[in-house]
Amino acid sequence: MIRCVVCGEEYNNDEIIYTCTNCGSVLELVNDVDVSKNIFENRKDTLWKYKELIPVNEDKIVTIGEGGTPFCKCDKLGEELGVELFVKVEGSNPTGSFKDRGMTVGMTKAMDLGVDTVGCASTGNTSASLAAYAARAGLRCIVFLPSGKVALGKLAQAMFHGAEVVSLRGNFDEALEAMTSLALEKHLYLLNSINPFRLEGQKTIGYEIAQDLEWKSPDRIILPVGNAGNISAIWKGISEFYDMGFIDSKPMMTGIQAEGACPITNAFRKKSMEIDPVENPETIATAIRIGSPVSYTKALNAIYDSNGYSQTVSDEEILAAQKLLAQKEGIGVEPASAASIAGLRKLKDEGVIDKGEQIVCVVTGHLLKDPNTAIEASTEPVELDADINKLKELLLNK
Ligand SMILES: *Cc1c(COP(=O)(O)O)cnc(C)c1O
Ligand SMILES: [Zn+2]
Question: What pLDDT is stored for residue 260 in this prediction?
Answer without folding.
Answer: 98
